[in-house]
Write a structure and sequence with these properties.
The longest helix has 39 residues. With 363 residues, the chain is an all-alpha fold.
């Protein structure tokens, strides 16, 4: 197992490098970089105007023989020396390959630099926003698995029954409808929309949270988190439920289950003493994806819908504003986290089923 872990850790380096290189290359062709953002502010241009143009209107950030003011859309009439100072400020006076390798060297030491527009280190911003995303992620992961696994087992045991049919309808609706639509519906119904005003529309706690006693702090936190968590749980439990059901059905039909029943074991003992360990392997395989989705991808739109100041919203704002240190810093952290969680999932495999031996498999 030690050799397998070392091989997986070694493979993370080129994988992470490839993810960052591809993302960095794509960004070079995206219109409306940070220099142009400031130029637009200086010249009073509308943000939609400066971002609606195609990439042919822009030139590379690598420099060239043309005048600095001619390399950016809307820069005509500005002092070329000012444009050059902006390039130096954002590091665009260097070739793209040099900027990329310098960035990767810094990231390898977990030095993510300063935000272009917030005048604060990227690492501090990530640490500041992380509690919101962790709160959402943990609740979604715990609640969705707490609902999905028992529901999937019950559906497998009662396959084809009325309960299985109507719960399948609920699961299909939860899978088909995007989470942000659930969020908007809940806002309309319960957050001061057209019906009731029972829950707050924004934030994870109230403004006076620090002055509240502990019992009221807990209630205030739950009050704010109810709608976002319900929204994400409704849109995340469907896949795990169906995986659990299908996995249990496959295992229940195997010969060892027939033998266990023939020996007089109770149905509960058969399900949780024999079937559960084997059936849960496929659910564990989906844990890394569920983890990453819960902590970032799934919460991206929900944080914006409910105005939660977490990593998802910060990343979205950074993309819109072309705040590249935040964009690449969060991408690096979540990519690395995903790779490590994938390795952890394999280790959990061996704990759940000792028959699995990754040492005998090719990576």
């Amino acid at each position: 197992m030690g050799a397998y872990i070392l091989r997986r850790l070694a493979l993370m380096i080129p994988t992470l490098f490839g993810i960052m290189l591809l993302s960095f290359t794509i960004v070079q062709f995206a219109p409306g970089g940070p220099v142009e953002q400031l130029i637009a502010e200086l010249t009073g241009q509308d943000s939609g105007d400066r971002l609606s143009g195609n990439t042919s209107d822009l030139t590379s950030f690598d420099g060239g023989s043309s005048e600095a003011s001619g390399r950016y859309r809307g820069a005509q009439g500005l002092d070329p020396e000012l444009i050059k100072k902006l390039e130096v400020q954002f590091g665009f006076d260097k070739p793209a390959y040099q900027r990329f390798f310098e960035m990767m060297w810094n990231y390898a030491r977990f030095d993510f630099g300063q935000s272009f527009f917030r005048n604060e280190s990227v690492l501090n911003l990530i640490i500041e926003k992380m509690p919101v995303s962790i709160s959402l992620g943990l609740w979604i992961l715990l609640l969705s698995y707490a609902i999905s696994i028992p529901l999937g087992i019950r559906k497998a045991v009662s396959d084809g029954s009325t309960f299985d049919v109507w719960t399948s309808g609920v699961v299909i609706v939860g899978y088909a409808v995007p989470g942000f639509l659930f969020g908007i519906l809940l806002i309309v119904l319960f957050a001061g929309g057209s019906f009731y005003d029972w829950f707050p529309l924004r934030g994870i706690v109230s403004d006076n949270w620090d002055q509240l006693p502990w019992p009221e702090k807990i209630l205030d936190y739950i009050w704010h988190m109810t709608l976002p968590v319900v929204t994400l749980v409704l849109s995340s439990f469907a896949t795990t439920t169906l995986l659990t059901k299908n996995s249990f059905i496959d295992e229940i039909r195997k010969q060892y289950v027939v033998t266990a029943r023939a020996k007089g074991l109770t149905e509960r003992k058969v399900l949780y003493g024999h079937v559960f360990r084997n059936a849960m392997l496929i659910v564990i395989a989906g844990l890394p994806g569920a983890f990453i989705s819960a902590f970032f991808a799934g919460a991206l739109l929900i944080e914006n819908v409910f105005s939660l100041d977490g990593l998802g919203k910060m990343g979205y704002d950074a993309v819109v504003k072309r705040d590249y240190p935040i964009v690449f810093g969060t991408l690096y952290i979540f990519s690395l986290t995903g790779l490590l969680i994938g390795l952890l999932s394999d280790l959990i495999y061996t704990w759940v089923d000792p028959r699995i031996d990754f040492e005998k498999r090719e990576v």
